[in-house]
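Example for tutorial group B:
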């Protein structure tokens, strides 16, 4: 029989999780908890009193053996980690995770993780980072102030993921779909980042096979992305090229559908390898591929500088229909009206 247990500030969340076992429901009362947490049992639900009311911050109360953030130094600490073969069907909801040196929420090799109405703020590397996992959902969260992605899906080849209804601001990438396929990115508001949403196919040495295929990007509001990433060593988006002022980019993707998004008023605040609010481009130069067989339908792309769209892709291999834009490259592509 599953256990329901209430934890108060000053008590150990980790102890409650470990003692309660699989299927436990852990209720966190309002207050601040200075500790990190590792969920390693299946079927667990961790519920706070609400974002801004239950707050997880760095402290000495976490397990010493918690798996570290992938490709990070030993001293980097994430707030809430879901990791391991047993850590499936986990739900985390209604709390704030802030100020950690790694990720706010980090799921690795897990299935069926749901992150719902969670605020991740000022976590140094990632906000919510889902890696090599399946069937995950990030819904109605707020992600801000991370060096890389506010919400990121990385190396999930058959992800079945849903990233929906989130607000992402002040990150390098608001939503980052990194070498992951079969994801739905729906109804998010991404503003004040360097790039609102990035879907990227490239190959990294020592990493799993790449690719971004069969994704849906629909109903997102991508605006006011003006930060500069990749411009300073150890700064925002330091590992990548300079990017600024982009709403949505498809780089090396296959069979991605982009429908009914509003991409507007994005302006570069620094150097950028991309020059428009909406960008399609090849990743062949860094181990990926050309953009192929994508559908771009009924999008409003307006008020961006220097261009509304920049299509570094073969138009004959895509479908464009009923999109609105004032200025783009090339100008004479069918399916774009002014």
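The residue assignment follows.
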């Amino acid at each position: 029989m599953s256990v329901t247990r209430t934890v108060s500030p000053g008590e150990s969340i980790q102890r409650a999780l470990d003692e309660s076992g699989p299927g436990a429901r852990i209720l966190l009362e309002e207050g601040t908890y200075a500790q990190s947490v590792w969920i390693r049992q299946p079927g667990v639900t961790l519920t706070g009193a609400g974002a801004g009311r239950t707050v997880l911050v760095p402290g000495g109360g976490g397990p010493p053996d918690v798996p570290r953030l992938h490709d990070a130094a030993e001293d980097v600490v994430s707030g809430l980690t879901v990791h391991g073969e047993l850590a499936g069907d986990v739900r985390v909801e209604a709390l704030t995770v802030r100020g950690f040196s790694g990720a706010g929420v980090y799921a690795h090799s897990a299935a069926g993780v749901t992150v719902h109405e969670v605020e991740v703020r000022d976590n140094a590397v990632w906000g919510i980072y889902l890696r090599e996992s399946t069937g995950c959902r990030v819904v109605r969260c707020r992600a801000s102030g991370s060096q890389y992605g506010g919400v990121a899906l990385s190396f999930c080849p058959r992800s079945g993921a849903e990233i929906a209804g989130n607000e992402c601001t002040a990150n390098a990438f608001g939503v980052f779909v990194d070498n992951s396929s079969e994801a739905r990115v729906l109804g998010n508001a991404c503003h004040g980042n360097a790039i609102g949403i990035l879907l990227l196919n490239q190959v990294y040495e020592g990493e799993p096979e790449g690719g971004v295929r069969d994704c849906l990007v629909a109903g997102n509001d991508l605006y006011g992305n003006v930060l500069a990433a990749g411009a300073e060593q150890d700064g925002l988006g330091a590992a990548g090229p300079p990017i600024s002022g982009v709403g949505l980019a498809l780089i090396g993707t296959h069979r991605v559908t982009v429908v009914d998004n509003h991409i507007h008023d994005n302006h570069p605040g620094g150097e950028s390898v991309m020059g428009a609010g909406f960008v399609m481009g090849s990743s062949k130069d860094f181990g990926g591929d050309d953009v192929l067989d994508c559908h771009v339908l009924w999008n409003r792309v307006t008020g961006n500088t220097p261009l509304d769209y920049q299509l570094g892709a073969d138009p004959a291999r895509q479908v464009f229909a009923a999109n609105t834009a004032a200025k783009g490259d090339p100008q004479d592509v069918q399916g774009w009206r002014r």
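The helical segments are 13-20. Compare this with the pattern of hydrophobic and polar residues in the output above.
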